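Supplementary Note 3. Input sequence used for the single-chain structure prediction.
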Amino acid sequence: MLHSVAVLVLDGVAPFELGVLAEVFGTDRTADGLPGYRFDVCSPQGVAVRTSAGFQLVPNADLAPVEEADLVAVPAHHGDTAAPRAVHDALRRAAERGAYLFSVCTGAYLLGEAGLLDGRECTTHWRHVDELQRRHPSARVRCNSLYVQDGRLITSAGTAAGIDACLHLVRQEHGSATATRLARRMVVPPHRDGGQSQYVEAPIAKAPEAPTLEPVLEWLIGRLDQQLTVDELAARAGMAPRTFARRFRAETGTTPHDWLTNQRILLARRLLEETGLTVDEVADRAGFGNAAALRHHFTRRVGATPNAYRVTFRDRVPTG
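The predicted structure, written as discrete structure tokens, is reproduced below.
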């Protein structure tokens, strides 16, 4: 059972992500019948650290609580924050004795520096997944997850995904009813569907740099609602179909079908966010033909159904 939590902070710690951990595990809600935890904010020698917002934060402990805590958590820090060896050693000892290790956003970098992501599934904010993979090639970085659990290792994406991961751990340790009550107390959903890709900035793209095919791609982006075959596109480019397919992959890195599907998904996202069109109408405008085809491709690539995606961004849909 989870009783004690130690949060490691270094210079450059992000206040909000630290606040997420403090809100879930550091706020005493035992009067409401919710679990209580010993909660320590720790730094090497217990010295003050400067947050990413510029103000200083004074921890209440050195690294001693890390040696005994049931959960050792690392909030987001600047990507170039350097941790002393004592921090890495403390994290490794925590892993060896079976404590939960938990990161929010770029906190995963610190776990990786301690060698705790090698061969493990993990995630971070979508803007940083490539860098995390570059730094730790043997880690199995999942780019579209709000959070990932691999044994006693839990890593989460940015900001609100840290809340999702915290509630997941509470649910696992104390049951669904407790996690739901805590979520209601915090006025957040007890569980969010989908992955990170529904939050990635993805405006309708201009045609990529494709010196041979750019005129065709520009023309195609304006006709996403039309059902066009590869043979028709090849003819417009003045190429044989096989030559067109080879040239397309060479210049865009993907197949004509995959490229076209991605462009249609981008258009569907924009229509779901910015218009009041029905899902059937969005499917027609984006060239999927029917709502079933849209749901299939949208869910596969975005990680949420069109309706769930619209609910997430409903404040952006016109009401009148």
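Residues 256-274 form the longest helix (19 residues). Confidence is low (pLDDT under 50) at residues 316-320.
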